[in-house]
Specification:
Keywords: Hydrolase. By secondary structure, this protein is of the alpha/beta class. 19% of the residues lie in helices and 26% in strands. A seven-stranded mixed beta sheet has the order 6-5-4-3-2-1-14, covered by helices on one side. A seven-stranded mixed beta sheet has the order 7-8-9-10-11-12-13. The N and C termini lie close together (5 Å). The model has no long low-confidence stretch (mean pLDDT 94).
Length: 237
């Protein structure tokens, strides 16, 4: 599984012959790409409806959008994409990957003006190469994109033991999400081998030093390796 961070919360994930793009927002200082530079994904996954997560969906008209039914309906109406409306706790098979949606503790108006009502519960996604079951499977590879979230005990009680992510992308920017300290606790609770900071340094309120996150992860006793990727950098999981 190939993971590429394009800054903010935007990730490309390749599993087999399937390309997924999460929260496309290329107007951020970490990437040198525009949406038009990116090879069209097979699927676009949206964690919630804020403008810094759905801004560039329209650049990928051939992609199938996966989101809550409310947000999927909005995207279909605005951009005409085919959509898969799913909800919290559900798993869908998308090409060579399985995507499980889990809650995120955040808000979910559509676009940055918050002028439209709720787009359903905000979410995170676990992308895996096998369908999750209650039987632990060390051969399965899984990546957790936490979305915009605060610290929540479901990371410890549900996501870690049931979905078993090997790696997690965690927001560290503070102000709108967790900061480095609580994000480090999340990494510990998730029991992942690899942790990637995201949702930071995009706007002044969320400027952070990723080294502080790495120190906090070590301080809570986690053995996770922290990877502060550069913009458009790829990690092979």
């Amino acid at each position: 599984m190939q993971l590429t961070w394009h800054g903010h919360s935007t990730w490309s994930v390749e599993r087999g012959d399937t390309r997924l793009l999460i929260d496309p927002f290329f107007d951020n200082p970490k990437t040198s790409l525009s949406a038009e530079d990116v090879e069209s994904p097979d699927f676009v996954l949206l964690t919630h409806g804020h403008g810094d997560h759905i801004a560039d969906v329209g650049a990928f008209p051939d992609a199938t959008v996966v989101a809550t039914p409310e947000l999927a309906g909005y995207i279909e109406s605005e951009h005409g994409n085919e959509t898969i409306g799913m909800n919290l706790g559900g798993t869908v098979e998308v090409g060579d990957a399985f995507v499980t949606m889990h809650r995120a503790d955040h808000t979910n108006g559509i676009n940055t003006g918050y002028e439209i009502g709720s787009a359903g519960m905000p979410a995170g996604f676990v992308i895996s190469d096998a369908e999750p079951t209650r039987k632990s499977d060390v051969e399965t590879t899984a990546f957790y994109h936490a979305g915009d979230t605060g610290l929540m005990t479901e990371m410890r009680d549900v996501i870690a033991p049931f979905l078993e992510p090997d790696a997690a992308a965690i927001p560290i920017g503070d102000h709108f999400t967790m900061g480095p300290e609580q994000a480090a606790v999340a990494v510990d609770w998730l029991d992942v081998d690899h942790a990637f900071p995201m949702h930071y340094d995009t706007f002044p309120p969320i400027e952070q030093n990723a080294d502080a996150f790495a120190r906090e992860v070590k301080a809570v006793g986690s053995n996770a390796e922290v990877h502060a990727l550069g913009g458009d950098e790829t990690f092979e999981l």
